[in-house]
Design a protein that fits this description.
This protein is globular. It has twelve helices and 21 strands. With 423 residues, it is an alpha/beta fold. Helices cover 28% and strands 25% of the residues.
């Protein structure tokens, strides 16, 4: 459920007609609904109610400062994977103790920053990282509360490029080798091996892979405690999928079903739990609005060429993703839906948003809304083809505000310079 609906013949973001925003900021642009973000955070929080748990929003899903500030005010913590994201979480008002630092390649500078800011937990992903963190912590006279990220060798059944819990993936420590590394951690200075972390992937549309991974974690907690470890925290990651096209609604597990599964598998352990939802909170809260430039007919198909490109929303090109697309003007009952391919202006064949969408008659100048673009949308955008990053707009009821503006050309190239021999 989201708050992008037709009213008086036009698609609205809450109570704001999208053409009004398009006139103010131009196209393409991202638009986020405050009501949907709030609703989705509340639904997930309610699903784990009664557990000793922290909801740490995965900043990699949407790193806009306004989005993060809203979630922080709702009580969210943050899952970060870089020093930049850590600084951003703090700037957005997330308390340091509610921040979890994940990622396979944390630098010494980033580990020092994590220690200096007193974040809640560092998820360690390898023995070299563990030893580096120990040396930094001991030198600073501090103790790092850590969880080892376990690779449970579970296939999440999602896209290959967003699967992270198989033994061939780069993430985490093999569950078979983990007990030995915990014993190493216990002997290292500056390290408190207090927890276990697991994250098997993203856009997971079945509870089975989660259950397999969490049962493996539960078994490991029991064995480590028998070996004298005071395991008191579990980071269960994120990854719960969302419906990207209307046909998906019946197959995506609800947060409530997910929460019940968590209680069933690890609820008896008495651990403090952390969750890293991203897509389930931000995905349906955002859309990408684009304007039709041309309608191009060939012998085989009709191309709708729009002003948004793969640099603005890379998911279809990178992950073969499908998104529902709506016309901003509400279709009439008598309109005949036509098969079209929606493509962008970027000089790549992969610059395609849909291979076959059925839409009412389209003409140049019409506005289209690409749905479920609030996660892994603007955050993964680039200026490929020297195209400016698009604005991001947040809506609350009848208000809207550009929370990121479109840069000018001179701003885009301001970090570049010519060497003396080319001047």
């Amino acid at each position: 459920m989201h708050h992008f609906i037709y009213k008086n013949g036009l698609l609205h973001a809450e109570d704001v007609p999208l053409p009004q925003i398009a006139k103010a900021v131009g196209t393409p642009f991202y638009c986020y609904s405050t009501a949907t973000l709030t609703q989705q955070y509340t639904i997930f929080s309610n699903a784990i109610e009664g557990l000793n748990a922290e909801v740490c929003f995965a900043i990699k899903a949407n790193s806009n400062l306004a989005v993060l500030s809203l979630l922080a005010k709702l009580g969210a913590g943050a899952d970060v994977v870089s020093g930049g994201e850590l600084r951003l979480a703090l700037k957005a008002g997330v308390p340091s103790e509610k921040i979890v630092f994940s990622g396979v390649g944390k630098t010494e500078e980033e580990l020092r920053l994590a220690l200096d800011t007193g974040i809640g937990q560092i998820n360690v992903e390898s023995e070299p990282e563990l030893r580096t963190l120990s040396a930094i912590a001991a030198d600073a006279g501090k103790t790092a509360l850590i969880a080892l990220r376990i690779n449970p060798d579970v296939d999440p059944g999602s896209h290959d490029k967003i699967s992270t819990g198989r033994r061939t993936d780069k993430f985490g420590i093999s569950w078979k080798l983990a007990p030995s590394l915990y014993r190493t951690a216990r002997e290292l200075p500056g390290i408190d091996p207090a927890g276990i972390a697991v994250h098997i992937g993203s856009q997971i549309t079945s509870l089975g892979p989660f259950e397999s991974a969490f049962l493996r974690v539960s078994d490991m907690v029991t064995k480590l405690r028998a070996d004298g470890f005071n395991i008191r925290t579990l980071d269960l990651g994120g990854g719960l999928g969302v419906p990207y096209v209307h046909d998906d609604n019946a197959i995506v597990p609800t947060p409530k079903a997910y929460g019940d599964m968590v209680r069933r598998t690890v609820g008896h352990l008495g651990c403090k739990l952390a969750f890293e939802p991203g897509r389930i909170i931000a995905g349906n809260a955002g859309i990408l609005v684009t304007r039709v430039i041309y309608v191009k007919d060939t012998e085989d198909q009709r191309f709708i060429i729009v002003d948004a490109g793969m640099n603005d929303l890379v998911r279809p090109a990178m992950y073969d993703a499908n998104h529902d697309v709506l016309t901003v003007t509400e279709p009439r009952l008598k309109d005949v839906l036509q098969p079209v391919e929606i493509v962008g202006p970027v000089c790549e064949t992969a610059d395609r948003f849909t291979k076959e969408s059925y839409l009412p008659p389209i003409k140049p100048g019409d506005l289209l809304a690409i749905l479920t673009a609030g996660a892994y949308g603007a955050v993964m955008s680039s200026s490929y083809n020297t195209r400016p990053l698009v604005p991001e707009v947040m809506v609350r009821s009848e208000e809207f505000f550009a929370i990121r503006r479109r840069p000018h050309f001179e701003e885009m190239i301001a970090l570049e310079g010519l060497p003396p021999w080319l001047k």
